[in-house]
């Protein structure tokens, strides 16, 4: 009887523990930042309050919550507070926030209570150039009406403070890095694994053992991201991590999940890097140490790695957006400087470029001499072509504002309104400092006014009104600054179809009364079709739900990319083309590989074109007929590059056309059909069929024959179906309307499928 009573008592206590665990356990968890963001002391990452509902609102907080974050301290103590995270609009709203304390690497954690600010300081300092894991918890003290705010560092309790009244929440954004209104340099280093959770009406949002598990899990995830190339990483001993998360640790209240388990045999290696993308740690270091334009290559690579989930980075739109917005901001500042306008030159190496381009010769090319002769002989079109090559630095020409101005003036003197507009733009904008100083502004106004009185061309008129608006806005050419007159000219330009006019009207309206915000957004949308800068502003609206726009992370990312891709770093595409025309296939491959790392889908196509050219070593008559000049064969490539480039650079990007995506799916079909000979580790015919079908949907003619080939012969997991094969062969032939040579020119695919088509279909 006594034994039965003990058993019942044990069951009762176990049930109570289970109920208590239910009261203590979190009811909502949001992993906000799975990847790693790099802060240089000047940038901040804004997370909308709607993404952290557990710590957002107005009024006092009645629920428990926690904030968990991994921090890599990259700079030693300074004389200022350095914000790690901050939630609020100003210093009257600080729930919750954490700073580094001046002259030390201790942290102070704070909330705003009903009776003022409540804060405490950690006992420990964060280690320099090392990862630390912080967990800030807030909840009611057991057996008391008071609240407790507690700080954990690396899984262990560091310090706590008792609050006599609950903190006051706010609905402001959650900021990582430099806090709101700070004039001094902010936190320098890395932030990762940001998690925000709530625990309802519980005593604590997390138990001590759960905090230790979060520390172990974060350490394991960070090791995955940085283990390959982070020579400064100090590995936690596997035994220590395993002990933190082993099953049954701390009893039934802390069950261990399988995905938290640590492989004790896993080595903490720092060897090896991704086949296409640069190692994570080196990119993270460059992203906060480099200055200005030098940041962009590292930032763009990190943006795409987190967007696609590459190289052990978790797929995270928040993290990717942080980097893409930073790149867009740098690019937009650069773009608005005189003489710093660039455009992306996208050329497919397969399009007979040896016949159509002489970028390797530049100003000495035959067509350059011909254009110069024609311009001097009175051809305005030739003068404009030369002017644009000098202005943008295209076709092998060096960027030269003096030569550009000279040729635009020549086109103007020959009666070209386009030349007049371009000349006026350069003079008004000050692309040549001496040009603006020598009455350039007044001359520009005269040119614009002349076009408005004589031209009937809507495009020319719109450009002129936009230029006059610019002069009124900045007070150029003897005019007084006048925003009203400027807006009237910009809106007139926009009504005539000028994207630049629409952009400038949007910029003025966006800075005025908030009631004009919706009107500004409409102008931004009109301008975005042809304006990278307009896309930058739309990206901001989409990122934070401003201007009446709904928040959309992926849409914001795509808008920011349209701005970020415009800049001197796009010259990698021009470098690749020039190297290819010079016969330097290694140099071309290296340049296009760098461009692919930055997100240019066209570079992925050209990488694979170069790899294909290596595989076919004979320079036969058919290939010469098709314009595929072989030159010296490319000798070295990484077998993994084919699949990575197709899946991540082209299909994973945001700018590839349907034609390019169709081609990529066709190539991936070959990859999965033939296995390691075409860049895939193993053959997967069913996956090949999926890609061929996607290519067919995008109109890729080659895919009809490849898919027909698989159905005709059958494969592992794919039954033979001659009827379906013949249908595909016929459709491919109808859509191509070309002979065998033309079909082969469409791209690399199974020649057997074409021969089979000729043998089995054309004879019917």
Automatic annotation (TrEMBL):
KW 4Fe-4S (keyword) present: no
InterPro entries listed in its UniProt record: ConA-like_dom_sf, Sel1-like, Sel1_AlgK, TPR-like_helical_dom_sf
Keywords: Signal
A Pfam family of this chain: Laminin_G_3
The keyword NAD is annotated on this UniProt entry: no
Signal peptide residue numbers: 1-25
Top-rank taxon, per record: Eukaryota
Recorded family membership: Belongs to the sel-1 family.
Designated name of the protein: Uncharacterized protein
Naturally occurring in which organism (per UniProt): Chloropicon primus
Taxon lineage: Eukaryota, Viridiplantae, Chlorophyta, Chloropicophyceae, Chloropicales
């Amino acid at each position: 009887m006594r034994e039965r009573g003990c058993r019942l008592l044990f069951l009762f206590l176990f049930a109570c523990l289970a109920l208590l665990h239910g009261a203590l356990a979190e009811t909502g968890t949001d992993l906000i930042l799975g990847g790693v963001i790099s802060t240089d002391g000047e940038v901040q990452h804004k997370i909308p309050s709607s993404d952290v509902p557990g710590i957002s609102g107005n009024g006092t907080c009645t629920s428990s919550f926690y904030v968990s974050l991994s921090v890599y301290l990259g700079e030693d103590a300074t004389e200022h507070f350095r914000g790690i995270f901050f939630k609020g609009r100003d210093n009257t709203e600080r729930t919750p926030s954490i700073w580094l304390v001046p002259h030390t690497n201790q942290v102070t954690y704070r909330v705003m209570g009903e009776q003022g600010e409540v804060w405490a300081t950690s006992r420990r300092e964060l280690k320099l150039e090392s990862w630390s894991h912080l967990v800030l918890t807030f909840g009611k003290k057991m057996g008391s009406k008071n609240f407790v705010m507690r700080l954990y560092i690396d899984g262990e309790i560091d310090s706590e403070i008792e609050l006599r009244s609950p903190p006051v929440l706010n609905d402001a954004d959650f900021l990582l890095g430099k806090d709101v209104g700070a004039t001094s340099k902010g936190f320098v280093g890395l932030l990762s694994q940001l998690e925000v959770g709530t625990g309802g009406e519980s005593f604590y949002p997390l138990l001590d053992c759960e905090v230790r598990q979060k520390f172990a899990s974060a350490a394991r995830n960070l090791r995955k991201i940085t283990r390959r190339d982070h020579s400064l990483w100090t590995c936690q001993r596997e035994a220590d991590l395993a002990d933190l998360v082993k099953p049954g640790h701390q009893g039934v209240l802390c069950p261990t999940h399988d995905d938290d388990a640590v492989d004790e045999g896993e080595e903490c290696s720092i060897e090896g890097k991704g086949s296409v993308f640069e190692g994570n740690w080196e990119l993270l270091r460059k992203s906060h140490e480099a200055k200005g334009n030098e940041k962009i290559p590292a930032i763009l690579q990190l943006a795409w790695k987190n967007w696609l989930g590459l190289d052990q980075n978790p797929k995270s739109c928040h993290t990717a957006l942080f980097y893409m917005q930073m790149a867009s901001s740098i690019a937009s500042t650069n773009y608005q400087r005189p003489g710093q306008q660039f455009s992306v030159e996208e050329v497919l190496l397969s399009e007979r470029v040896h016949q159509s381009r002489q970028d390797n010769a530049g100003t000495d090319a035959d067509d350059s001499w011909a254009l110069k002769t024609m311009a001097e002989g009175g051809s305005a079109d030739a003068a404009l072509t030369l002017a644009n090559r000098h202005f943008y630095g295209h076709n092998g020409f060096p960027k030269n504002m003096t030569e550009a101005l000279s040729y635009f003036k020549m086109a103007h003197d020959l009666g070209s309104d386009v030349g007049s507009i371009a000349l006026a733009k350069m003079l008004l904008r000050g692309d040549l400092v001496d040009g603006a100083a020598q009455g350039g502004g007044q001359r520009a106004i005269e040119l614009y006014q002349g076009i408005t009185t004589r031209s009937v061309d809507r495009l020319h008129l719109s450009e002129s009104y936009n230029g006059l608006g610019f002069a009124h806005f900045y007070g150029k050419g003897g005019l007084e600054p006048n925003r009203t007159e400027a807006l009237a000219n910009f809106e007139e330009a926009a009504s005539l179809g000028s994207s630049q006019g629409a952009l400038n009207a949007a910029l003025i309206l966006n800075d005025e009364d908030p009631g004009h915000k919706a009107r500004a957004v409409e102008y931004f949308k009109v301008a975005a079709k042809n304006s990278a800068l307009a896309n930058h502003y739309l990206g901001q609206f989409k990122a934070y739900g401003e201007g009446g726009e709904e928040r959309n992370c992926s849409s914001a990312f795509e808008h920011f990319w349209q701005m970020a891709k415009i800049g001197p770093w796009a010259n990698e595409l021009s470098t690749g083309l020039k190297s290819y025309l010079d016969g330097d296939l290694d140099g071309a491959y290296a340049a296009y590989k760098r461009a692919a790392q930055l997100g240019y889908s066209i570079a992925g196509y050209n990488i694979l074109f170069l790899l294909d050219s290596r595989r076919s070593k004979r320079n036969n008559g058919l290939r010469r007929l098709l314009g595929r000049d072989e030159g010296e064969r490319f000798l070295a490539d990484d077998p993994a590059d084919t699949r990575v480039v197709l899946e991540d650079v082209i299909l994973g990007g945001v700018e590839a056309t349907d034609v390019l995506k169709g081609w990529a799916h066709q190539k991936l079909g070959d990859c999965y059909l033939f296995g390691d000979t075409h860049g895939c580790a193993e053959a997967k015919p069913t996956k090949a069929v999926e890609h061929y079908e996607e290519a067919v949907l995008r109109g890729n003619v080659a895919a009809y024959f490849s898919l027909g080939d698989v159905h005709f012969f059958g494969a592992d997991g794919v039954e033979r179906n001659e009827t379906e094969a013949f249908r595909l062969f016929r459709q491919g032939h109808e859509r191509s309307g070309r002979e065998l040579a033309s079909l082969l020119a469409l791209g690399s695919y199974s020649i057997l499928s074409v021969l089979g088509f000729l043998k089995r279909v054309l004879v019917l």
